[in-house]
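Students often ask why we bother predicting the structure of a whole assembly rather than each chain alone. The short answer is interfaces. A chain on its own may look different once its partners are present, and contacts between molecules only exist in the joint model. In this exercise we take two input lines together and write out one structure for the complete complex. Read the inputs first and try to guess which parts will touch.
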Amino acid sequence: MAVMHEAAHEEHKLGFLQRYVFSQDHKIIGIQYMMTSLFMAAVGGVLAMLIRMELGWPGARWGLAKWLFPGGFTGDGTLKPDFYLAVVTMHGSIMIFFVLTTALSGGFGNFLIPLTIGARDMAFPFMNMLSYWLYPPAIVVLLASFFVAGGAPNAGWTAYPPLSALYNPATGTGLAAPGSGLGQSLWLVSLAILIVSFLFGSLNYITTVLQLRTRGMSMGRMPLVTWAQFTTAILMLLSFPVLFAAVVMLLFDRHLGTSFFVPSGLVVGGQLVTHQGGNPLLWQHLFWFLGHPEVYVLILPPMGIVSEILAVHGRKPIFGYKAMVASICAIAFLSFLVWGHHMFTSGMNPLVGTAFMVTTLAIAIPSAVKTFNWVATLWRARIHFTPAMLFAIGFVSLFVTGGLTGIFLGSPAVDVYFQDTFFVVAHFHFVMASAALFGLFGGLYHWFPKMFGRMMDERLGKLHFWLTFVGIYATFFPMHFLGMAGEPRRYYSPQMYDFLRGLSGLNMFVSLAAFGLGLAQLIFAYNFIRSLFRGPKAEGNPWHANTLEWQADSPPPHGNWGATLPTVHRWPYDYSVPGATEDYIPQTVPVTAAVVAGGAPDEPPTTDLNSA
Amino acid sequence: MPAPTRTLERPPSARDPGTPAIGGRGPDGTGGDALAGTPATTPARIAVWLLVGAITVLFAAFTSTYLVRRGEADWRVGPLPPVLWVTTGVLLGSSVALEGARRHARRGEMAGLRTWLTVTTLLGLAFLAGQLLAWRQLVAAGVYLSSYPHSSFFYLLTGAHGLHLAGGIGALLYAVRRAPAAATAAAALDVADPVAAYWHFLTGLWIYLFVILFAL
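Now the answer. The structure tokens for the assembled complex follow.
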């Protein structure tokens, strides 16, 4: 590419703003997404601590918190009920849309896709920049909802109408709950902005993977992390527009007097609502048609990351590459057919519920294929217990724990009892939230050297892992028992009913575990920030990995590859090939130079094993 | 036997197998040797179909709620502003004009390409004006956004379609400037084809909306 010389040239020409702020370089954009998401993770984490403060010690007085959140606490320091609901809503919204989606898809997707397929950048670098720069405005709009009349929305991250739809323009607050006022509108606008950002991102990812793969990089030679990002982008492209439609219609209902979701004859606070003729269940269908693919948007990229880490740090080829790709695609396809399992208690026809149960349980098959392949990859592997590897193994554990409770909840008869209890909270915090978080941490420990050219501290990383792993189980496992005992989610006080009073000890334990879990993340923050500036310099390929990104400099320069694009000759998982001189053979090494152990070679090897 | 090399500077050779027909191109399409003779798929051609996919899902969501809502007992259909027949014809005409533009582009007749692209753009603007007129007529008849469910859906669907069509006009204006200025017929089509795919999709989408709003 003559462009390369231009690109190298350009790097000197670009000012600070164009290089690091309004950058069109996929690596900078990926890092921007990552940093912003980590900031939002801190915000969402603090909100989680507030939730646990209230649930552990309902009605207690918190002097310091009152000072930090002046609007959310009464004069004597108790958390206000409507602020509690706002905190629950914002914790979910932030963690799902503004942390996990943006970090895993926006952060790793941007950074890794062009590097792993041997491209110089995304197909549409300018659109990529726009994608990132829609994200901070969405955050500003979202967080602004804390400061408007009525405060942040409190209809939950699912924003079910009519609670989220009814709005009193005169006071700026909601009819049924204060947070359903202007705060809810800001929440909706913020999501709409973010959806446009995701649309730009996924358009770019798909086009880049289809168009810009380097010589020899067939789809069957792409690393699993790239397959996962590619499939996730398709999921996002086809599911987020549905939420966009729902958001537009809900905004119309709130501000323009339409009645898409508000039924006739609704009486709220002794007042007859003027809307008529809508159906609130339509929102639930639209929301969950996005909502369920969304949880796979969160979990597929970690699945790819974990597949990569297990192979690299276990020094073994991934077990069942083709089955891994097929199961990614199967999970993505099935994820569009299961949304009804979130609505078993909505008065759904039992026959329809049964159909959704069947599709839901069918997802267990490709998920189990993946889990077995991960375990088989670990079988007799020469495991290097790096922090990345620990988090990857932790991911498998969390995914299995959470996946098993998913089988309970997928059955309508059981779900009718468990719906909206802490059992569900435990389930999704294991299978989706914590597992995705472990994928995020594992990926950060693994690719940090490539992103920043420095190594993170391993001892702190291991300490971070063990405290987080134990902290997650201590926090979320007891929630299963809370749920089985009937404790509902989203309630201000878990002790408002007699039958729940006996659970206060368990709730206190969960809260203490959650505080410990939160504090453990400070170790990560310290390690991350310190390593950015003080970490030892990383070599190009510190983990001795095969994929293309590790064959570039750390960090890769603008344009990624010197004058010539790399040429790919083999699949990405040639680790510990018998007879090879080293225990890894990068994808760029020709077949004649070293044999291929798996995947498709360029041509039948002309040499036997011993001569390699 | 040479030792395994880890250099990136492997010279490309004709015998490198596994080369995807569309791979090996840098962001500007100059990164590798595109296979000669095969019509290159450009990023824009792929992206436009992805965009069409996303917009299809968006309207599937809008219209699935419409179709569900229509099944209820209190449903009634609002008046059909006659100008919509005209705008439908205008939009169909614009798609025909756009095909004319592409025919000229295929033959390398850049002047004809420019003329027909301009005609398409003007017909697109006329369609939008007609849609606005339909809205004015409905308002004059006392049919507002919040009057009854059908009117809500009518304004929502025509508005969403109109916004996407306004984006299409932006794309057409880009094509009017860039396509006739291209050096070759293929380069002109690289600009015109994605715009045409998007525009024809919007025409088809309007027919679908028109039918479900009033005919079925």
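Check your guess against this: The CA atoms of residues 125 and 346 of chain A lie 44 Å apart.
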